[in-house]
Write a structure and sequence with these properties.
This protein is of the alpha+beta class and 221 residues long. It folds into two domains: 2-108; 120-216, 2-Layer Sandwich (Alpha-Beta Plaits), CATH 3.30.70.60. It contains five helices and four strands, in the order H-H-H-H-E-E-H-E-E. The protein has helices spanning 2-27, 33-42, 46-119, 122-133, 171-184; strands at 138-146, 157-169, 189-198, 201-216. The protein has a four-stranded antiparallel β-sheet.
């Protein structure tokens, strides 16, 4: 209702300004032109009076038509603006609902990451995975690092990185080890994997790996 009232007030204000402008143009600021026009009119011959009246009527018609043209043009423009405003309002409401839904999913994901990272202990986890598969693991070290500040995840998450070496592993056991690591904790992902041949040994390889996961607790600002 407030929007419709604003439209009506704007139309009435526009119409009042048009009427005032026409009145000032015809009769002067304080109607001082009326007496002068009346005296001049009566001094004219009947033929000239008739012609003048016809001219005035034509001018009034032009002014009236112009005023109505401006009036309806402005009304149409206001209606278009009102329609656009209502459409924009609906879009904002739709975006708000989508934002709330995505925010809920984000909070749920944050909770999952928090639970996984709270229970995750790098050394025992990877040693157990290597023992289950039957491979030897060495030089295991872990560290946390901040996510780049320009990332939207930087305020809530950070990286948890685990690096290690498998000095002697066959390709089938390496693949089995990777599967075992990622299956036990879905938040873990192999970031890099370097596989090198061993001198004089074609069946086994030396492997360096870096595994990265997210954990709650952003530090970048």
């Amino acid at each position: 209702m407030s929007a419709l009232t604003d439209v009506r007030d704007q139309i009435q204000s526009l119409w009042s300004r048009v009427v005032i402008q026409i009145r000032r143009t015809l009769f002067g600021m304080n109607n001082e032109r009326i007496d002068f026009m009346m005296d001049s009119f009566y001094k004219l011959s009947p033929q000239h009076q008739t012609g003048l009246l016809a001219g005035i009527a034509g001018l009034l018609l032009v002014f009236v038509l112009g005023a109505f043209t401006i009036y309806f043009t402005r009304v149409n423009a206001l209606e278009d603006e009102l329609s656009t405003s209502f459409d924009a309002l609906q879009d904002i409401k739709s975006l708000g609902a989508s934002y709330d839904q995505e925010l809920k999913r984000y909070q749920e994901l944050k909770g999952i990451v928090a639970r996984n990272s709270a229970e995750f202990k790098p050394k025992p986890y990877f040693e157990k995975a290597s023992n289950d598969v039957g491979v030897q693991i060495q030089e295991l070290r872990s560290s946390d690092s901040d996510i780049a500040a320009d990332s939207p995840l930087a305020t809530d998450f950070k990286y948890s990185t685990v690096e290690f070496r498998l000095p002697k592993v066959s390709l089938p056991r390496l693949l089995k080890f990777i599967e075992e690591v990622e299956k036990g904790n879905p938040s873990l992902n192999f970031h890099s994997l370097q596989v090198r041949t061993r001198y004089g040994d074609r069946l086994f390889f030396e492997t360096n790996a870096k595994v990265v996961a997210y954990k709650v607790g952003g530090g970048a600002q």
